[in-house]
Amino acid sequence: MTVGSHSFSLTAHSLGRRYGRQWVFRGLDFTFRAGEPTAILGPNGAGKSTLLSVLAGWVPPTEGFVSQEIDSQKTEPEHLYKFTALAAPYLDLPDDLTVAEAAAFQARLKPWRAGVTGAADVVAQARLDGALAQRRVRDLSSGMRQRLRLALALLSNARLVLLDEPTANLDRDGVAWYLDLVARTCTPERLVLVGSNVAEEYAFCSRALHLPDYAPARAR
Q: How far apart are CA 43 and CA 195, in angstroms?
């Protein structure tokens, strides 16, 4: 589906996730809407990454459910992956491929957003063109790998973009690059969720969800 100026939303209904006897979050009711970038906040261990995975349909909730609506039509969770992109420091990349090959491989899975001319354009926007484009991903620095993750996610034709600790491993120039890329790609038809405890990462967000408010097993 080509991204257009239509609606996209995710709604959590009494959502909870537990590992063993420990609830990570519970009783979460919240609607996330395209055009309203939302920060998911909380200290380390609050469940930010877990919630992003549940919302994307990659991890099942222990209780409650998530409903999805695309262009005023409900869709099934198993189809959500078609519209979703993730950037996170723990996300594995194809280490044996070169940067150029990794971008070309990504294009086979999900098309680029309007205005992106191809894999070479993505590599250039990630500041990994020239000789770096022929370097194997495993030989990149941690900051370069994070720029590649962010470029692949934000420049893809995804309605839902999940950014978990997006500035991890980035230096000051890398953070400025990330903020510029977000500003250019965080458009009204796109739902962007940022899992973070670093204010600079989510300064562009118009809404915030504080996960400690949904952690009944923690002292409050």
A: 10
